[in-house]
Amino acid sequence: MFPTILFFIFATVLVCAALGVILARNPVHSALLLVLCFFNSAVIWLLLDAEFLGIVLVLVYVGAVMVLFLFVVMMLDINVEEFRRSLAGYWPLAVAVAGFVVFAIINVIVAKHLGGVTYKTAPVLPDNYSNTRVLGTALFTRYAYPAQLAACILLVASIAAIVLTLRTRGGGKPQDIAKQVAVRPKDRVRIVKMTSEKRS
User: I need a surface site. Which of 1, 73, 80, 100 has the fewest CB within 10 A?
Assistant: First the structure.
């Protein structure tokens, strides 16, 4: 009973935070609300006895991806009003996608209650079973190369985010190392002889 109450509490907060991500006018606020969504999703995973997925959700998405996304949003200095005007023409597509998702969810719920879809019950696991150990063993043996590929993709995304922040700005004075090294002292220092003046 108590886990069910916790599930509904965190699910409600998750839905409200997801609506805040969509409706927030400030992109930084949207990113912070998305972090809250990830935290609530991780708690729900923990309630479902999926500790590994909950920990990975917090460490990878909240600790790395979302922090990176937040820094990119803050450093790019996006013109929110112009960006919102450019997206205004896509609202029919957004409504169509949202309607399809709602239809799919309602279809699954109705099919489940009408008995049209059969679900297999999960097998009873022993007390000393650890899904973290099983997933870790599969990740570093059978799926080692896909995991390395995912790490390379995240590295490329991180480098791309850094490159986006290094955009060209007017009025800057970048260094030219080649010119600095090629400078000769006689080109920079000029000795001028002047006649001394007598005091009156």
Answer: 1
pLDDT exceeds cutoff 70 at 117: no
CA distance linking residue 63 with residue 71, whole number of Å: 12
The CATH classification number of 1-78 equals 1.20.120.1200
Instruction: Evaluate if residue 116 carries a pLDDT over 60.
Output: no
Residue 31 near residue 66, CB atoms below 8 Å: yes
pLDDT value for 167: 63
Instruction: Tell me the domain boundaries of the chain.
Output: 1-78, 89-119, 130-163
Q: Using CA atoms, how far apart are residues 23 and 50, in angstroms rounded to an integer?
A: 31
Give the Cα separation of 53 and 57 in Å (integer).
Answer: 6
Among candidates 114, 134, 111, 119, which has minimal Cα distance to 49?
Answer: 134
For residue 171, how many C-alpha atoms fall within 13 Å in the half-sphere facing its CB?
0
pLDDT band at residue 109 using 50, 70 and 90 as cut-offs: confident
Picking from 24, 54, 52, 26, the residue whose alpha carbon sits closest to that of residue 40 is 54
Mean pLDDT, rounded, of the chain: 79
Give residue-wise pLDDT tens across range 159-196. Answer: 887 777 666 556 667 778 888 888 887 777 777 787 77
- 93-105 per-residue burial string, b: 16 or more CB within 10 A, e: under 16: eeeeeeeeeeeee
